[in-house]
Amino acid sequence: MEFLAASMTLDIGNTDRLNIFRQEAQRLGVKVAPPDVNVSEAVFACDAAANTVFYALAAVKGVGRQAMDHVVEVRQAGGRFKSLSDFARRVDPRLVNKRAFENLARAGAFDSLNPNRRQIVENSDRILGGAQAAQRERESGRCRFSARAVE
Q1: Which residues on adjacent β-strands are paired with residue 33?
Q2: Please, how many CA atoms are within 13 Å of residue 47, restricted to the half-sphere of its CB?
Q3: What are the residue ranges of helices labelled H in 47-123?
Q4: Gap between the Cα atoms of 103 and 13, Å rounded
Q5: What is the Cα–Cα distance from 47 to 53, expressed in whole angstroms?
Q6: If you average pLDDT over every residue of the chain, what do you get?
Q7: Is the pLDDT of residue 144 over 90?
């Protein structure tokens, strides 16, 4: 199983080879779990106890390795993502842009947060708008509370 994960990582950009490895995993009785922002790593990883290879986030077309390394770092630092808005608030929108976000949604990487992929893609502007606002707040060091909220 570790060999499969390592081999798949080596061919991370070659979808034809990844399909061959997926078929081999199936033949061997190894489950290949779909990408998931709350479980997957940037590269292919495995869980021997569950007899599962976790699909790499960076293997999703059009997302980029650096962006997916960032997603994994954010998750490790702050825990699992609780919602799409939590995801959008915590990641850097310069790394996880609209194209990457929509490709992750289409690949099912947000299914654990919201299984309606179409809804996610159709609302990506609104979801990512919140991420950009959160990023601007982080950069400016502004407090999120108004004077009225403090009174």
Answers
A1: 54
A2: 11
A3: 65-78, 84-90, 98-107, 117-122
A4: 15
A5: 6
A6: 89
A7: no
